[in-house]
Amino acid sequence: MLTNVTGLAVVALLIVNCGKGTSAYPTIGSIERLDPALDQLIPKGAKLEVLAEGFEWTEGPLWISQGAYLLFSDIPPNSIYKWKAGDGHSLYLKPSGYTGAQPRGGEPGANGLLLDAEGRLVMAQHGDRRMARMDAPLESPEPKFVTLADRYKGRRLHSPNDAVYKSNGD
Q1: What angle do CA 31, 36, 38 make, to 5 degrees?
Q2: What is the rounded CA–CA span in Å between residue 71 and residue 94?
Q3: Domain spans, the chain
Q4: How far is CA 108 from the centre of its chain?
Q5: What whole-number distance in Å separates Cα of residue 114 and Cα of residue 166?
Q6: What is the value of pTM for the model shown?
Q7: 3-state secondary structure string, the chain?
Q8: Can you give the pLDDT at residue 96?
Q9: How far, in whole angstroms, is CA 69 from its chain's centroid?
Q10: What is the CA radius of gyration of the chain?
Q11: I need a surface site. Which of 35, 55, 116, 151 has the fewest CB within 10 A?
Q12: Largest CA-CA distance found in the chain, in angstroms, rounded
């Protein structure tokens, strides 16, 4: 079981090899099965594979089915990366969470990522303290954003982290 991997920054970049042959990626850890229902989601014998390394703090993995690629946030460098089989990883969007001109410490980048009902990228932006939508197509990302929410009951959000999109639009 993977626990306490601070500094390795690989947790969000692990996929499950479902026994479809050998893999070019190194494996790490093991899958601890506490409930037999997990077998319906992850086949027995599946391995955790490291897709990429060298990041500071990754979060917000989002699989883009139409393009068959993974987006994920690396929060301290204020970046979103893209990983695609055969291509590896590349910078997708920077800045991702803080768009101000003054240097900012702490947690500037985007965290949680999701797609809205129209397939547009929505992110929890730590640095700008808001939920925002990228105002550019997924295929040609640009750091242009539309604020969806930055206040609750009149008070600024502190540091939006994760998000879900409910099928009814909430």
Answers
A1: 55
A2: 13
A3: 1-54, 56-170
A4: 15
A5: 11
A6: 0.83
A7: CCCCCCCCCCHHHEEEECCCCCCCCCECCCCCCCCHHHHHCCCCCCEEEECCCCCCCEEEEEEECCCCEEEEEECCCCEEEEEECCCEEEEEECCCCCCCCCCCCCCCCEEEEEECCCCCEEEEECCCCEEEEECCCCCCCCCCEEEEECEECCEECCCCCCCCCCCCCC
A8: 97
A9: 11
A10: 17
A11: 35
A12: 54
Measuring CA to CA, which residue among 39, 57, 43 is closest to residue 96?
57
Give me 129's structure tokens: 């303290």
Residues 43-79: tens digit of each pLDDT? 888 989 899 999 999 999 999 999 999 999 999 999 9
Query: Do 41 and 31 contact (CB within 8 A), yes or no?
Result: no
Q: How would CATH label the architecture of 56-170?
A: 6 Propeller (2.120)
- Cis-peptide into 95, omega within 30 deg: yes
Structure tokens at 59: 């979060």
């409910």: which residue's tokens?
166
Contact 120, 148 (CB under 8 A): no
Copy the structure tokens of residue 108.
């500037």
Distance separating alpha carbons of residues 164 and 60, to the nearest angstrom? 11
Contact 28, 50 (CB under 8 A): yes
User: Average pLDDT, whole number, for the chain?
Assistant: 86
